[in-house]
Amino acid sequence: AVVSTQSTGEYCKREDIAFVAYSPLTSPGKRPGEASILENELVREIAERHNASPAQILIRYQIDKGNGVIVKSVTPSRITENLAVTDFSLSPGEVSQLSAISDSLPSGYEKRCCKWDRFHNHPRYPFED
Fold first, then answer.
1. What does the chain look like in DSSP terms, one character per residue?
2. What's the average pLDDT block by block, 10 residues per block, for the chain (129 residues)?
């Protein structure tokens, strides 16, 4: 998903921890009834402005935020497309707009995020209460 773990990313940056977006394109079509972030109207509008695919926009979004990105594909054309994100950048306004998407995602997307509260009792839990 876009980044529903904004505070986690901010914490990692403050502590100089590499933050990696794992599966930032979600798994289109794998979960019946779950809308794909690739179909989001804003993502598609920004993609059109940059003559890019929605997947490229979501990958570039993570790069522009300073995050590492892991994208999985077995399709050669998609692998090539996913790598072709170095010839454009998103504006700060576009990054802000994309960041705001997480506030309006359906509740099903929450399952795709690491819920830190289940690790609360772990001795290396990094957050203060």
1. ---S-HHHHHHHHHTT---EEESTT--TTTSTTPPPGGG-HHHHHHHHHTT--HHHHHHHHHHHTT-EEE-----HHHHHHHH--SS----HHHHHHHHHHGGGS-GGGGGGS--GGGGTTSTT-----
2. 59 84 70 74 96 95 90 90 94 92 60 58 71
* pLDDT score recorded for residue 124: 75
Q: What are the backbone dihedrals phi and psi of residue 116, each rounded to the nearest 5 degrees, phi first? A: -65, -25
Residue 83 backbone dihedrals phi, psi, to 5 degrees: -85, -15
